[in-house]
Each structure stands twice: as C-alpha cells, then as structure tokens.
Amino acid sequence: MKQLFPSLLTLAILSSSFPIAGSGRSPGPSGSRQPIFGFRDAAAENSVESRFLAVPDPKLAEEHLRTLTQAPHMAGTPEDKATADYVAQKFREAGLDTEVVEYKVWLNYPAEISVDVTAPAGVEMHGPTREHVDGDPYDSDPRVVMPFNGMSPSGDAEAEVIYANYGTPEDFEELEKLKVDVRGKIVLVRYGQNFRGVKEFIAQEHGAAGVIIYSDPYDDGWRRGDKYPEGPWRPDTGVQRGSVGYMFEFPGDPTTPGVASLPSLPESKRISPEQSAQMPKIPVTPLSYHDARPILEHLAGPDSPREWQGSLPFTYHVGPGPVKVKMHLKQDYQFRTLWDVVGRVRGSDLPDEWVVSGNHRDAWVYGAVDPNSGTAAMLEAIHGVGELLKSGWKPKRTLVFCSWDGEEEGLIGSTEWVEQHEPDLANSPAYFNMDVAVSGPKFGASAVPSLKQFLRDIAKAVPSPKGGTVYEAWQKSSRAREGIGQEDYKPPAAQVTADVPVGDLGSGSDYTAFLQHAGVPSDDIGSTGPYGVYHSVFDNFAWFKKFGDPEFTYEQEMARVFGLQAIRMADADVLPYNYEEYGKEIAAYLDAAKKRAESKFGDRAFDFGAVSAAAKHFQEAATKILAKQKTPPRDPAKLAQLNQALRGTERALLVPEGLPHRPWFRHAIYAPGEYTGYAAVVIPGVNEALDKGDAERARQQLASLAAALGRAAKTLEGSR
Ligand SMILES: [Zn+2]
Fold this sequence. Notes:
Layout: H1 9-14, H2 42-53, H3 58-68, H4 78-93, E1 97-119, E2 126-127, E3 149-150, E4 155-163, H5 169-177, E5 186-190, H6 196-205, E6 210-214, H7 217-220, E7 242-243, E8 284-287, H8 289-297, E9 324-345, E10 350-360, H9 372-390, E11 397-404, H10 407-410, H11 412-420, E12 430-438, E13 442-447, H12 452-460, H13 470-481, H14 511-517, E14 522-528, H15 541-548, H16 553-571, H17 579-601, H18 609-630, H19 636-652, E15 670-672, E16 680-682, H20 684-691, H21 695-717
Parallel strand pairs: 3-7, 4-5, 5-6, 6-8, 10-11, 10-12, 12-14
Antiparallel strand pairs: 1-2, 1-9, 4-9, 9-11, 13-14, 15-16
Helix pairs in contact: 2-9, 2-16, 3-9, 4-9, 9-16, 11-14, 12-13, 17-18, 18-21, 19-21, 20-21
C-alpha cells in the first residue's frame, strides 16, 4: 500500500551488472558477523544462521512470484483465496503449523465508474480509459478491476474543476490566496507527497463536491525516464488505484475499531459504515494522465504557482472551470471474507514469546512488486526455516509468519489479527514487516530506534548481489544519496548516529497495529528502484522480470534478511535491542519540539523540565541496561528478568488512554501524521497540539509523555 517516491539515483545502480551471489553452499562473507549480545555458543549459532542463509533460492522465488501473480487477486476474490491456499501449502511443506483465518469486513468493489467532461463544448473525455500498452501480456484479462478508489462512497457530482496540486493543507491555503473557492467544485489533485485518503479528507474539509486524483508524468511517468514497456515508468493510461479510507483515527475494518472482525462477531458490535470515521463523504476516483490531460488543458483562471506545474506540455491553470466534469460512481459495498494465512513454529524454551513476521498478499491487480515480491521472498525465508526444522533445529521463541489479506483497503488483515491477539502479543519481542520487498536494488529500512542497530547487524551478515554485504551496499547508496534532491520514500529519522540511516515508522503498511496499537517493537524493510507502475495493471510479472529483479537475486537477498531477523530474534539469549539509540532520538525530538514551542508561543509558555528529566532518566537507564546486555548474568532467573525488562520497554511507551481524539493509537513516540498519513509524526501528542496552537493540550501532552518516559525508564531499571 505504501507510496513509493522514486529516486533518480537508483537508475545508475540498476544499470550495473552483478554476479548471482550465494545460491550455493557458501552463503555469506564469513566472519562479518558482529558479536551481538549474549553467550550462546557463537559457533553453533553461526552455523544455524549460515545453514539458513544457504537456502533461499532465486529460481524458487521466481516460481512463487509467477504463481502468485498469474491472475488479478484483489482482497476477497476467489483468486485471492487461491493465493492464500498456495501460501498455506508452502507454509505446511516447511513444517509450519498453519491456519487460514477468516475475517468478515466492509469493502467496496466498483460497479459503475465514469468521469466525463461535460463542458465546454468540443472538449471530449470519457474515462476511465482502459489501461493498455502494446506489448504487455497481462492488461487485457477481464478480471482486471476497473480503476477506482477503495472506501470511496457511491455518488454523483457534476461541477467545475479546480486544480489543487498535491492537495496538501498548504496547497489549499494557496488557493485561498488566489481567491479560488473550492466549495461545491470537483477538485483535481495529483498523486504524491501525502496519502491519498488525506487528499480526500482535506478537500472534503474545504467543501469540495468530489475529488479526482491523477498520476502526473512528473511524479512517476516519462519525466522520470522511459515509460513501460520501454522503461519502468508509468505509461499514459496507467492508473494508481488505492484506498481513500481515512485512517487517522484507526485502521482496519471501518466497522470494528478496536475489535476483531471475526465472522462470529455479532452485528450489534459493529458500527454502521456511515458512522465510521474512516469513510469519506464525497466521491473520489483516480485517473491516468491520459484522461486527466483534457481537463487540465482546458482549465482557465489564474496560472498555478510554478511548483504546481507538472509535466504535461501546457501551463497548468487552477480554474475554476470552464471545464465541467461529471463523476458517476456506483460502488458495490458488502461484508466480504478475507483470508490471513498464519503459520507457527512453537518455541522450545519460551513458547509464549511470539516473534512475528508478515507481508500482505492481496493486490489491486497482479501486484508483482506490491506486495508479492514480498510474499515470494517470505516464502523463501520460510523455505530456509523449514530446512532448519528438518535438520532438528528448534527456535527458542515461537516463530509466527503471517500472510495478510486486505492490506490495500486499509491494513485490514493485520489490524484485525492484532486486535484478536492483543493479549498474546503482550510478550512479543518483535514484528518484522515486508510489503514491497523488491522494486529495485537499493536496500532501505525503517524501524523503532531500539531495532535500528539490530537491522544494521543483520545487514552485515547477508551478502549483497552487488558483492560485499547488504550493509556495505546500503552504506554506499546512502552516502551517494547525499546532495540529491530526491529523498527515499521514508522520511529521514533523527540522525543521532553517523551510521546508515534507518527511517521512522509512520503508517502505510501492516506494522501499524503491532507498533502503534499493541506496542510491539517493529521494523519494515524493502529494496527499491525506479518504479512507476504502482497499483496499476502494469505492476505484473512481465514488468518485474524486465525491470524489478530480472535474476531474482534481490528477492534472495530480501528472503535472507527477512528470515535472519526472525531466527536471530527467536534464538537470542539476550534480546538484541539498543535502547540507547532510542533515548538519543527521543532527546532530539524533544529539542525540536521545544524550539517549535518557543517560536510559536514564546519561551515561557511551557515547562519542558519534567519531560526532559524523564527523557534523561530513560537515557541513563538505557545506557546501564546496554552494559548488562553485553555481559549478561549467567543466572537464568536474572537473565529472564533482564529480557523481561527489555521486552516490556516499548509497551511502556504506550499511553493507556491513547492519543487525543484517536484512542486506538497509543504510542507516545510515533503515529501517522494527520495530514501526511504515511510519514511519522514523532511525539505526536505534543507536536499535534503545538500544530493546532492548543497550549493547554500541549501542556497535558507534555505531562503524558513525561509519564510514559518515566514508565519506560522504570521498566528498563526493573532488570536488577
Ligand atoms: Zn503493499
């Protein structure tokens, strides 16, 4: 689901050739393994890890991807069920105790979708035009769903059009300055910069009658490079589908906030979709730049600000009109069945501690990159775990692998599962997410700060198809990125270390419920490149084989990284978190918030004393426990106590009553932004109150944050 912003840099990397690494017996640069915490026999552990690393196979990953993407498989369709069955079979072949879990959730499929230009005379457009390029073997399948937006209501609107750039709050302010009134108008915005549900929400707040979201060639079309099938970028008719559910208050099934949508859930426990904070009120639908062009080209009114100019060959005006558009959307809403596939390997020593790894399986159409590059890599990771199991190995902690459904509509499969298993997850040491595993060769990751060093250590143990380790390639690409305007798709984290940057977790994929609702330390990994076919019919096997990962060696790399995380975490004697890095990041967030507070309210408005003291307390406790992690107690009871302290700290950062106006989100340090959706807002209670200019709330939230930091510090200290 997550939006990928292309990086120009990866173009250069893609063209370099590399040997196929390590499909044979010698998987990794031996000896590159950093000493980590604990005292388990390092040689034995290394041998488990190297035996695992030898298994993931590019050819098998290719076979998985080909099978998973042979038909369009939107959530809830028979083809989606067929992919669940395939995944379940692979889980079982590897020896996982596997179940297919069903949920009943509120979803729309499109019944009738049309967008027609009705004025001025002589301008014709009747969309959406079917997605097509000559030479694509997949785009004519009758099961390809017509372009639409998930969670849009049915509705008709006919009105003059206004162009609003990316549809950010600043863009609407700019329209106000230009004295352009959007009330009652159809707002045309382009994809990019924020989550599409946020575009819809802001347009609705400003009184628009409908929203059309199109893909401008500037953002992921020919302005970036050759378009598909000559290159990897979006062709004229390519449309980005996607959910416009507004997940600021909660993700998942719109009718069951905080409750699992099991088929047995009585109707009375659901809220009506009309009451759900998730559901937009005005119709919204996507278009290609082929279809948006006649609308944009005939807009009059003021010239748009120059930064709003996309790459169609005329000056963009903001309107309103004289172009009029008629939107006609008839959505088929029903409660539909989703299928999560969940496979377990019971832990030998600590079965109640679940190390959970997951990837979503449902796609808008074929989903070769998003998400099935992740599914194929996950299946090869599980293949590796299966080989270890056959040789007699047992993980110390329980391994859980999940193939989520309904992610695209609103992170539904993962959210419902977390809501169902919240008590079981109270002892979970980690959730590892992978959505888009591979769209190109550049490794990247986001994580809670406590897992950032763990991730770097994992990357040091896995070979890169470019030669050397994933870590070395990662270092090179992050160094090379400096000075280039295009950022990675993740917002940069507070840079408190000189090491490779690991981003913060906002929202946009299945870690959301784990981290922000249940307080499970989480990360998210992916390998990216030039990718302009996101959520279109062209994100298919032919695209992937030509541009994504022709040799499937990055699939192999991601299978190794993904699986190694789970194995190392499950077998760790001492849980490998680094809370010192967490403490430093929190201190940096507080510094920034203090500066913002002073610039907005003057330097006497708030007392940061208590929260700064709590942050310092947390940092000191983190430093002490890190020393203990390096020389852990031999006594099993003391060791258990140390691990319990480490495991409980993330959860201690949850605010029991939740964040203001959105109790489902409980994490005191990270939440998805109100007006970004994907990007994280850090220390959200405080920063959102400052944004709103609400000093009283900001004071309460400083106190609430101080309390959470105090609890987390005490939890770390509970290890004596
Ligand atoms: Zn996805």
